[in-house]
Amino acid sequence: MSIPLQSFIPPLVISLLAFTFFGLFEDKRSSDNVLFYPAYAYSAGDDWVIPMRIYVYEYRPGVQSLIRRMFTRLRGLDDEQQQIFSSRIRDFVVDSESRETVLFSFDGDPDAEVFGIPNDEGGYLQTGLNGFVVGEVRVPKERMKQIVEAQNPTDGWLTINAVSDGHPGTGRIKLIEPEGLSVISDVDDTVKVTELPAGYEIVFRNTFYKEYVAAPDMAEFYHSLGDETAFHYVSGSPWQLFRPLSQFLFGDEAGFPEGTFHMKSVTKNFLSLNTWRDLRELLMNEDVTFDQKIIQISQIFEHFPQRQFILIGDSGEADPEVFSTIREMFPEQVKEIYIRDVVNAHELAPERLEGMNIIPALTIENGVSQFDI
Fold this sequence. Notes:
Layout: H1 9-22, E1 33-36, E2 39-44, E3 47-58, H2 61-75, H3 79-93, E4 95-96, E5 104-106, E6 132-140, H4 141-151, E7 157-162, E8 170-175, E9 181-185, H5 200-208, H6 218-223, E10 230-238, H7 242-249, E11 260-264, H8 273-284, H9 288-303, E12 308-314, H10 319-329, E13 334-341, H11 345-348, E14 357-360
Parallel strand pairs: 2-8, 9-10, 9-12, 10-11, 12-13, 13-14
Antiparallel strand pairs: 1-3, 2-3, 3-4, 3-6, 5-7, 7-8
């Protein structure tokens, strides 16, 4: 399940306006920062192929503070809520840096080789108007073997660091073998209590200025699937929420197994026509998340045609329908489907959960939050 995109309209619109009217006056003295989203590597012939997503940005503390003050007045936030809100909106209001080339190296690499996302001309791709660069990096298996031996990671994750000038940032990449067990997991109301069926006001509060709460017993269930299991968290929430979500899920409190994230692209640069398209779809298109999840999950399956998959979601929105479609597309690879039933679908709409394992959960009702009971 994903957070309804209309939930993000207030912070997105205000952040865009703040960037336009106030961003030009902010004192820009900090260096660009690089965010390497966690990635996996899959085997392809003599290479390991790494699908990468990199973001280059600059903090705008003035804009962030402005929006926090505006929302504090609008919603009467207390001091704790203000701190949470400020941290949650940070990546909505940073300044995306375009035309940047990001190069990186693997920690401990004895050859100190430099890598980047290649373009068709023999150089490297640069970030677009919204600060992102997306593409694949290929590393020969013999080279990767040297890197793995040098790092000797205990958790299977390799560490990388940006080496291009003015681009501090670190990232992690997990080499996933062609055969084994993988989990595709939703986030909201599957591993984190967001209460999407409760409605906009409750979802907005739970997302932007309330401490996150893990879904009961789900972390233990995930760990019971084995230490060698690979995890992919596929969410309809925007990439701007990656950092607070990943810090919560993989932190000591929630304790979920670390994995890659696959989220929704929501642009926010007024110079890009995609901004206006995305804002229109925030309001109009209910099928965007369904299509996004089908595309992202299908790509993972295609990269690992010999692996078995467990799909885990919830009944609050379209996870059963998404997973049914994936099972039809890859019948030999889908081992099991689990649905955390947050809307009593097993009684009210049992056809949605046909052939799926049901995880009992509190029923979420419109306008009612379990945190207020």
